[in-house]
Amino acid sequence: MSEGRLKEEMQEVTLLGNQGTTYKFGYDPDILEVFDNKHPGRDYFVKFNCPEFTSLCPVTGQPDFGAMYISYIPEQKMVESKSLKLYLFSFRNHGDFHEDCVNIIMNDLISLMEPRYIEVWGKFTPRGGISIDPYCNWGRPGTKYEAMAEHRLINHDLYPEKVDNR
Description:
Blueprint: H1 3-9, E1 34-36, E2 46-56, E3 63-73, E4 77-79, H2 81-89, H3 98-113, E5 117-124, E6 135-139, H4 144-155
Antiparallel strand pairs: 1-4, 2-3, 3-5, 5-6
GO molecular function: preQ1 synthase activity
Protein name: NADPH-dependent 7-cyano-7-deazaguanine reductase
GO biological process, one term: tRNA queuosine(34) biosynthetic process
């Protein structure tokens, strides 16, 4: 691919390679950027693992730490990874319950990309002797991805994995 064509295709992406990155300390979905999926005729997963996710408890204001796992099957648009990192960082001073965080992230990514399928799984470190691992997913209604979402939701924790990050 020629350098000119690559620059044209990536014109929507402003954060990648930008040396003057600004970190937002409050929730900001406008940070997210997309680029064109070069393989829209093929189903494939894109997975992001964020082992250093941080948010605040909305009641106590205490920090909550965990890992966030995002998997999706793209349609026409894909999320740019640096913008996703900055977006996830924007939760650092955001107060919401773990269950709300995973659903907010999923909803923002659905609005941004309109993927075929997406799932978000948070695995939070224990506080008060208990850990919370909320999982949510979505498949485009009226398609095989809707049935896939139902199947994966029903079976997502059928065989609990070994958790090494706690």
